[in-house]
């Protein structure tokens, strides 16, 4: 029995068609094999909530490569996007800290000592 090689990696964002015909986009969280050696995947789909937050998620196990329509992002692309978001957040917090420090200095120069 020949083992098939996995085409997708853990962390890849993929679009797949579920058994009911619904199309979902999710993140591969596990790679497994069926008893005949066919590669399959466990995919986690985030459910949207209010203001972009997620209310929960659904895990779809045993999705074969035949069910996966396309790879939207590789794991490396997802990591790069996450790093960019973190940099943007830290820049905003640093600018707010700078404003706070400038206000403290202005107050000190005006004779308002804390």
Number of strands: 5
Classify the secondary structure makeup into a structural class.
alpha+beta
Topology-level CATH name of the largest domain: SH3 type barrels
Within the largest sheet, what's the order of strands? 4-3-2-1-5
Output the number of helix runs.
Answer: 1
User: Which blocks of ≥5 consecutive residues have pLDDT under 50?
Assistant: none
Mean pLDDT: 80
For the report, how would you describe the main beta sheet? 5 strands, antiparallel
Can you put this structure into words, describing what you see?
This protein folds into two domains: 1-73, SH3 type barrels, CATH 2.30.30; 75-114. The protein contains one helix and five strands. It has one helix at 75-109; strands at 13-17, 23-33, 39-48, 54-64, 68-73. A five-stranded antiparallel β-sheet has the order 4-3-2-1-5. A hairpin with a 5-residue loop joins strand 3 and strand 4 (54-64). It is elongated. The mean pLDDT is 80.
List the helices and strands and how they pair.
Elements: E1 13-17, E2 23-33, E3 39-48, E4 54-64, E5 68-73, H1 75-109
Antiparallel strand pairs: 1-2, 1-5, 2-3, 3-4
What are the key terms here?
5-stranded antiparallel beta sheet; SH3 type barrels; alpha+beta; 114 residues; 31% helix
């Amino acid at each position: 029995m020949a083992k098939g090689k996995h085409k997708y990696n853990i962390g890849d964002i993929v679009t797949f068609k579920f058994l009911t015909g619904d199309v979902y986009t999710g993140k591969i969280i596990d790679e497994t094999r069926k008893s005949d050696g066919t590669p399959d995947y466990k995919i986690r789909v985030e459910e949207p909530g209010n203001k972009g937050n997620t209310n929960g998620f659904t895990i779809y196990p045993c999705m074969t490569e035949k069910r996966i329509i396309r790879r939207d992002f590789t794991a490396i692309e997802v990591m790069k996007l996450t790093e960019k978001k973190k940099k943007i957040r830290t820049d905003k917090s640093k600018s707010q800290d700078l404003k706070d420090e400038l206000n403290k200095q202005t107050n000190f120069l005006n004779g308002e000592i804390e």
